């Protein structure tokens, strides 16, 4: 088990977002975190990343977990001056050793960005930007990665490309993936497990068995 969540409760003022959540994630799992708008998916992620304290309950990651995080899509100013490569290198030391440059080369290659590494981030497409965020997170060599709505606002081919890369990380590197999305068909195609957050509770299972309950 890589994550054990126990009786996790979150309230903002007196409003309960979720109550007594209990679930586990296994090492190497690929889980879609699904649920309607406002169900608390981002709040749950922020708690797990230590950015927000829960009202009650607890969670524990395996002691060997190294987390990577790709935040919700943010617009980058078209005038943003850094190249894709320099943007990725922001997650590194000021003095860039040969080894660090090689690691950047490797992540550019793995994320299909080598040929456009000198394109400015401001000019990059949505999919290229998301792959740059992912490459930046991968420089830390995480063994678990959390992606919040990484494919929202991407065109269909960019979605597929990003998902194929995430699948590659899972298959080739055994990366555990937690992927927040509204896109059930995409999740069914690429993910293996699901968590469904709604009305303050969570359901878990195999993605093949997931049926959205509209209520
Ligand atoms: N800091 C905060 N203070 C008060 N309320 C908040 C705060 N952060 C989130 N909320 C509320 O908590 C609820 C859950 O929000 P959250 O963003 O976690 O949902 P979500 O499932 O990620 O939604 P979406 O799919 O639209 O991104 C929302 O009603 C939101 O307004």
TrEMBL record:
Keywords: ATP-binding, Nucleotide-binding, Transport. The keyword ATP-binding applies. Residues 3-215 form the ABC transporter domain. GO terms for molecular function: ATP binding; ATP hydrolysis activity. PROSITE patterns: ABC_TRANSPORTER_2. SMART domains: AAA. The keyword Plastid does not apply. InterPro entries: AAA+_ATPase, ABC_transporter-like_ATP-bd, Metal_Ion_Import_ABC, P-loop_NTPase. Gene3D superfamilies: P-loop containing nucleotide triphosphate hydrolases (3.40.50.300). Belongs to the ABC transporter superfamily. This is Mn/Zn ABC-type transport system ATP-binding protein. It comes from Lactobacillus corticis.
């Amino acid at each position: 088990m890589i994550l054990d969540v126990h009786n996790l409760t979150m309230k903002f003022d007196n409003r309960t977002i979720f109550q007594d959540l209990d679930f586990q994630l296994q090492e190497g799992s690929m889980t879609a975190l699904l649920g309607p708008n406002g169900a608390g998916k981002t709040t749950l992620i922020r708690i797990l990343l230590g950015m927000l304290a829960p009202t009650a309950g607890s969670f524990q990651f395996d002691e060997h977990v190294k987390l990577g995080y790709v935040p919700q899509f943010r617009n980058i100013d078209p005038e943003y001056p850094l190249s894709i490569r320099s943007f990725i290198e922001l997650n590194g030391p000021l003095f860039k050793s040969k080894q660090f440059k090689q690691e950047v080369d490797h992540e550019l290659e793995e994320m299909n960005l080598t040929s456009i590494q000198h394109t400015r981030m401001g000019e990059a497409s949505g999919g290229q930007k998301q792959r740059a965020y992912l490459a930046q997170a991968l420089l830390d060599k995480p063994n678990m990665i959390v992606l919040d709505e990484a494919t929202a606002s991407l065109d269909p081919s960019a979605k597929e490309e990003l998902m194929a890369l995430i699948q590659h990380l899972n298959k080739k590197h055994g990366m555990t993936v937690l992927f927040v999305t509204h896109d059930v068909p995409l999740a069914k195609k690429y993910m293996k497990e699901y968590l469904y957050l709604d009305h303050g509770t969570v359901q878990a299972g195999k993605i093949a068995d997931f049926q959205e309950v509209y209520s």
